[in-house]
Amino acid sequence: xxxxxxxxxxxxxxxxxxxxxxxxxxxxxxxxxxxxxxxxxxxxxxxxxxxxxxxxxxxxxxxxxxxxxxxxxxxxxxxxxxxxxxxxxxxxxxxxxxxxxxxxxxxxxxxxxxxxxxxxxxxxxxxxxxxxxxxxxxxxxxxxxxxxxxxxxxxxxxxxxxxxxxxxxxxxxxxxxxxxxxxxxxxxxxxxxxxxxxxxxxxxxxxxxxxxxxxxxxxxxxxxxxxxxxxxxxxxxxxxxxxxxxxxxxxxxxxxxxxxxxxxxxxxxxxxxxxxxxxxxxxxxxxxxxxxxxxxxxxxxxxxxxxxxxxxxxxxxxxxxxxxxxxxxxxxxxxxxxxxxxxxxxxxxxxxxxxxx
Length: 357
Ligand SMILES: Nc1ncnc2c1ncn2[C@@H]1O[C@H](COP(=O)(O)OP(=O)(O)OP(=O)(O)O)[C@@H](O)[C@H]1O
Description:
Elements: E1 14-26, H1 29-35, E2 39-52, E3 57-61, H2 68-75, E4 83-88, E5 91-92, H3 102-107, E6 108-111, H4 125-135, H5 142-155, H6 172-184, E7 190-194, H7 202-219, E8 222-226, H8 230-236, E9 239-244, E10 247-253, H9 254-259, H10 264-270, H11 311-315, E11 321-323, E12 327-329, H12 332-336, H13 352-355
Parallel strand pairs: 3-8, 3-9, 6-7, 7-8
Antiparallel strand pairs: 1-2, 1-4, 4-5, 9-10, 10-12, 11-12
The protein binds adenosine-5'-triphosphate (ATP).
Membrane topology: Peripheral membrane protein
InterPro entries: AAA+_ATPase, ABC_transp_ATP-bind, ABC_transporter-like_ATP-bd, ABC_transporter-like_CS, Oligopep_ABC_C, P-loop_NTPase
Subcellular location: Cell inner membrane
């Protein structure tokens, strides 16, 4: 289990406010007949607020389709938001007409899930790692560039002579090390890591996660980490945000979330991993299928699967409220004390992530 989050300094490196991404899609023929209209909307991200203090890791977790990768793509400027804002080091990067400015792009990099698909198979490793250095004009000469590539290869646990090889000559874990060397080549401050180890064998996963934690300590990196694997998230995170159908249902310090989960959906997720040594608590089995993001249930999106749902939950959407211990939860049952082990509402309106900085 992680220790309590280390306090950062100054303003959060990343702030996301009211972020939305709605996809318009053509309705299937049968829906057009039954409901009328040509279009339907997928609310992939539907009003998301989060902050990541410098030098810390916030992980997003949730079932497939809850919007985690869409958040990553929006933050990286790979997709335009339908609403809301993204502030990086205080600058709004969500409205840049021609994409994010080069300096911001250099400071934010991404590590993808699949180290097979994310490396160009026709390029030598040295060129793959050197490409961002060339893009941002970071080396004075080819000799400088090669020295830097060699240093990066050794930094991530590979050999300088590996630069002359092609990606197919490496294992999955080694390829992810190459992706990491490429991502840190521009000396970024912020890395978005979208399921960086889920394509790897478990033994290799641990090596890559350890490398990422060492890098964070040595380089002062801030991470947005995306995973559906709670054991991985438990190892990596200072903060955890739990997403359900495009919304955050709980954002808490990692240790607090595992020891004392508040939202019934967080409890459901944790009940799928009984071997993490967390405190025993009464279980609230949640029935039902994950609802469709095209037509989410009214009120709390989770209410059809929630044993604690009442009339208010079926009609009124809850908002994220602050509680003791830096916990934020979006749940009427928690607010009303109907949840098991209710937590105390915080008197102050200080944002929990701010409170930690
Ligand atoms: N380009 C798109 N057009 C239409 N719908 C999309 C598009 N991209 C994502 N979606 C939908 O948005 C929702 C969120 O998708 P997203 O990939 O962000 O979820 P996720 O939590 O990352 O899932 P996974 O863990 O499976 O990657 C899904 O319902 C998905 O089908």
